[in-house]
Design a protein that fits this description.
two-stranded antiparallel ribbon, alpha/beta, 34% helix, 229 residues, 10 strands
Length: 229
Amino acid sequence: MKLGIMQPYFLPYIGYFQLIKAVDKYVIYDDVNYINKGWINRNNILLNGQKYLFTLSLLGASQNKLINEIFVEENQSKLLKTLETAYKKAPYFENIFPLIQNIFDYEYKNLGKFVGNSIIQIADYLNIKTDFIYSSAIKKENTLKGQEKILYICKTLNATKYINAIGGQELYDKEIFKQNNIELNFLQTQIVDYKQFKNDFVPYLSILDVLMFNSVEEIGKMLDKFELV
């Protein structure tokens, strides 16, 4: 069984969804510490032909709290309006904007669940059949940290293969995973360009940008453009 484990990122880049599609089960890692100025509640979109950083407003955000101990502010109308302004002339706006509105309307404002729901909804729209589970729902010894905690989750869920984002090469040791009868690979995204507006292509933006300019079928092909190392 192929397993992926990542913190919940809000409207992350396409590589995040490539990883979800590449595994059988995906763990939304919601019971680890929140990271300030990370990707949990922000990402980049295209606004007026340029990369623009947006932020989901939070209540009581702190690196001393777990992701699932933080909450999303009720009123996100300003951010929603920014997203609408940025993409209202995009070819798939009429398909995607209702999906985004539905994501913002999610009743549970716990950051882990709110962002997790956004990931699950987009994966469903893209016909990704991966099973999801929240790490907070897995019984484990919470004193475990880093690689040991990941290994414990892998063993608990009977994973034979663990796939992580390419940045995980600095965190995880293939030999240690092998000693635990788990194959470790890292997913390297290939740059996939597509027509945006009349600007030069701006890569590595939020999945929202990909959704606004491409059909489900086109995105399906993009999701397979990666290399496992």
